[in-house]
Design goal:
Largest sheet of chain A: 6 strands, mixed
Shape of chain B: globular
Strand order of the largest sheet of chain A: 5-6-7-3-8-9
CATH architecture of one domain in chain A: 3-Layer(aba) Sandwich
Number of helices of chain B: 10
Helix content of chain A: 25-40%
Radius of gyration of chain B: 18 Å
Structural class of chain B: mainly alpha
Structural class of chain A: alpha/beta
Distance between the termini of chain A: 35 Å
Oligomer: heterodimer
């Protein structure tokens, strides 16, 4: 396992930012720490990057202690800070050449500039790059030393759609190469697209973790929703499809069973036999953001 | 070595691009040198103002680069998270400090070459024998003022470092015996100035590079103390974030 957090807690004075967080992230996978702002994602990732000491619990990165063995890890780990970290007057090519000089083996700065789409901006001072270009440069900097583990704190924040596509394809390429990618985000759509594994974190605690599909199925009470003329005979419908059916509101119906093709066929044929017009049919799968919202809401309550 | 040279190259490129730093490190000393040597306004105590001003601005150049340029530059690097990001790279603290020192020394050498050439064009002819002591003093001064610059950079926010370094620069410029001899200051002020790092640095460089001059021993004692205490303070109190 490339990255392990075990009962990890981080405190600032009296404030507990991270509270007994445990998770693992493995090579060749994209692991996403998902949570609202202030959830403890940055504290967690900055601990693994070697910046913040833990108040209790333990962690390891490539089998080493991220704080005590920091100097042994720097050549194998690539990071992207949530913001800043780059001199405002530096030019992208210069920056990548500078950092390339720090690593025993590094990517070619020119090639990397091309990969993040900054070749034409290679001589533009950092402060004059757009927000998205700055993020892409920061990502390039994380990759220059051919890392085995990559920590990215909000990599797509402030990036336009095109830039997101580019960042996504770069991350998928890293996964392909067997790199362990750990990112933080509060962007659900991004998480659904990218994550092999999601760790949902709120108020410093892990509230759920698993693959996006697991998180959806574990918490969904799957059912079929459809719209038709009001006041149908729900008892007859229930008997016909073999599952409880009810009219939830005027002309809106709900069948309490996973929306299998057989169930859909049973419902539509019953309606056809009654010559009833179907106005809409939805096989409702709870999306990750439902899960996310519900999980965080219940913690607040 | 590859890492240090890569860092030095970046530091020098960024320094050269910062107009205000160039002004402080070369513009002001050059202006003082040319202006006050052509117009005899300052009570330099020498027949030719250049004989006092030339070594004076060499001391000033050390103070500007080691304290002001280094302090302000590093202060903003800290504020913008540049040091934090470097901390996650294999460069490491030790090599970062070495690169900073080397960068300061390279800039000082360039400053001295420009200022010495300009001074000689203005008729300055220092005794050859004085250079060893002058350079030793400059190295001690570099340690002392780098320590002060990094102490400010590592403990104050970027803008506060800018203000503090420039303020201290102005005070030490006027009271440090660099453009106005200590003997012209009121005695209590001169006594305090001797305890600060600027006056001993000026005393050593001016004393060494003046024909028939000498260096008072208080200068070596005072500057050596600063060269030890200031870097030590910076090392102990520097906060990277």
């Amino acid at each position: 396992m490339s990255v392990i957090a075990d009962q990890l807690s981080i405190q600032y004075g009296q404030t507990v930012a991270v509270d007994q967080v445990s998770f693992e992230a493995q090579a060749g996978q994209i692991t996403v720490l998902l949570g609202p702002n202030g959830a403890g994602k940055t504290s967690t990732i900055e601990h693994l990057e070697g910046y913040r000491a833990a108040s209790s619990g333990s962690s390891s990165v490539l089998g080493l202690d991220p704080i005590a063995d920091h100097h042994k890890l720097t050549a194998q780990v690539g990071i992207m800070l949530q913001q800043g970290g780059i001199p405002t007057a530096i030019r992208p090519r210069e920056l990548l050449q500078q950092y390339a000089g720090f690593f025993p083996a590094s990517l070619d700065p020119e090639e990397l500039l091309a990969r993040v789409g900054l070749t034409s901006r290679s001589k533009t001072p950092y402060r004059r790059l757009s927000g998205g270009e700055q993020q892409r440069l920061s990502l390039a900097l994380a990759l220059i030393g051919k890392p085995k583990v990559v920590f990215l704190d909000e990599p797509t924040a402030g990036v336009d759609l095109e830039g997101r596509d580019l960042i996504r394809s770069l991350l998928l390429a890293l996964r392909q190469e067997g790199v362990c990618v750990l990112i933080t985000t509060h962007d659900l759509a991004e998480t659904e697209r990218l994550a092999d594994k999601v760790i949902i974190i709120d108020h410093g605690k892990v509230i759920a973790q698993g693959s996006p599909a697991e998180l959806m199925s574990a918490t969904s009470s799957d059912h079929l929703l459809f719209g038709a003329t009001p006041n149908l005979d729900c008892a007859a419908l229930s008997a016909a499809v073999g599952s409880q059916a009810s009219e939830t509101s005027h002309g809106e119906y709900r069948v309490e069973a996973p929306p299998s093709p057989a169930l859909v066929a049973a419902v539509t044929s019953w309606l056809a036999a009654q010559n009833i017009q179907l106005t809409d049919l939805r096989a409702e799968r709870q999306r990750l953001d439902d899960v996310f919202r519900r999980l965080t809401d219940s913690t607040d309550a | 070595m590859k890492a240090i040279s890569s860092q030095i190259r970046t530091e020098l490129a960024l320094s050269a691009r910062q107009g205000e730093q160039l002004l402080v490190s070369l513009g002001i000393p050059l202006l003082i040198l040319v202006f006050f040597s052509s117009i005899d306004l300052l009570p330099t105590g020498t027949d030719e103002p250049i004989d006092f001003l030339a070594p004076g601005v060499l001391a000033l150049a050390v103070m500007s680069t080691a304290m002001v340029s280094l302090g302000i530059g590093t202060g903003f690097e800290r504020t913008y998270g540049v040091l934090k990001r470097l901390g996650a790279s294999p460069l490491g603290r030790g090599r970062w400090v070495m690169a900073k020192i080397a960068t300061v020394l390279v800039i000082e050498v360039i400053q001295w070459i420009v200022l010495i050439s300009a001074s000689m064009l203005l008729g300055w002819s220092p005794p050859l024998s004085g250079w060893v002591c002058a350079i030793a003093g400059a190295l001690l001064g570099t340690a002392a003022f780098s320590g002060l610059g990094l102490l400010m950079a590592g403990t104050l926010p970027g803008l506060a470092t800018l203000a503090a370094a420039n303020g201290l620069y102005l005070i030490l410029l006027l009271t440090g015996g660099m453009i106005v001899p200590l003997s012209e200051l009121p005695a209590p002020l001169a006594a305090v100035a001797k305890l600060l790092p600027a006056a001993p640095l000026a005393e050593i460089i001016i004393g060494s590079l003046t024909v028939g001059g000498s260096v008072a021993s208080w200068a070596w004692v005072s500057l050596t103390c600063w060269a030890v205490i200031a870097p030590l303070g910076a090392a102990l109190l520097f906060r990277w974030e």
